[in-house]
Amino acid sequence: MKKPLLATFLCIFILSGCQPLVQTSGELEKVGLLVPQTINDQVWGTKGYKGLLNIQSQFKVDVFYKEGMDNEAVITQAVEEFQRKGVNLIFGHGSEYAQYFNRLAPEYPNIHFVCFNGEAKEKNVTSLNFKGNAMGFFGGMVAGKMTKTGKVGVIAAFEWQPEVNGFFEGALYQNENVDVEIRFVQHWGDVRRALELLDELIADGVDVVYPAGDGYNVPVIEKLKQHGLYAIGYVTDQSDLGKATVLTSTVQHVDRLYKLVAKQFNEGKLKSGNLYFDFQDGVISLGKFSPLVDEEFRQSLADEIERYKKTGKLPNEQ
User: Fold this and answer.
1) H/E element holding 116?
2) Are 191 and 236 found together in one domain?
3) Cα–Cα distance measured from residue 77 to residue 220, given in angstroms and rounded to the nearest whole number
4) What is the percent of the chain with per-residue pLDDT over 70, rounded to a whole number?
5) Domain containing 182: what range?
6) How many domains, in total, are found in the chain?
C-alpha cells in the first residue's frame, strides 16, 4: 500500500483525545485526495476514489487526486498545488497522513485536512477512525461457524488493528473449541510476505483465513480458492472473488464516509480531532454471504448485529 510509484503517477488529475473539537466555517469549494499508492488497487485506494466521485456528483465541485503520495516532500508539494487551485478540503487516504497534516495545517488555515486512523492535533485536522473491533468480531463468528478443521487464521498488517482482536473473540464466542492463529505482515501491501504466512497457516490446518490487509488480501483469497479453503473478505465486499471461497466480508464503506464528511464540512459542522464510526453510522457492514452459510445462521447473525447497533454491546458483552 505504500510502495513508491513512477513519477508519472505524481501528475495531477482534475475530474470536472486530541485538540478540543471545533467546527469549520463551511462552504465546500474544491476537494483534493492524496493516496499513497494507486486508486486502481480495487480495495482501499479505489474506495477513496469512489468517495471523491460521490462528492463531485453530489456537490458539483471540482475534485482532484494525486497518487504515489508516500513521503513528506511530495505531500507538501501536492498541498501547495491544491491550495493554488482553491481546494479547501483535502483527504489523505491513510493513517500515514496524520503526521504530515499536523505539521502542514498551521501553514494552511483555510484548508481542512482529513486523514484516517491517525491522531489529529491541529484545529483544522480531522482523523476518521473505523471501529474495527465489531466488524472483526462478526467476521470471526462466521469463521468459527464454518471451519471444518477447527482452525482459523488472521493475516493482519499490524498489531494495532482492532479487527484482529475482534476476530479472535468472535471466533471463540461462536466456537469455544476453535484455534485462532494470528500472523502479522508488518506492511499493508507486502504480498510476498502475506503469501508466505498463508503457507504457514495452511500447513497448520487452518481452513478459514481473514486477510486483514488491503494490499494483499486479493492474492491471499485467490490462493485460498486454489486450495479449496475459505476467506473472510476485508474492506470491500469480495464475494465476486468466489462465492464458494469468500464466506462474507467485513466492509468499510469509505465512499459513504467521504460524502458524509463533505456534507458536514459544507454545513460548517465538521469537527476537528478524532472521530469514530461503526455499524451504527452506516459505514461498516458485513458483505454478501456465500451460499454455503446457512440461512438460519445468517439471520441469527443479523439479529446480533441489530442488537449491537442498539446497545453498543457485542454478543459476548450482553
Assistant:
1) strand 112-116
2) yes
3) 35
4) 92
5) 132-252+288-317
6) 2
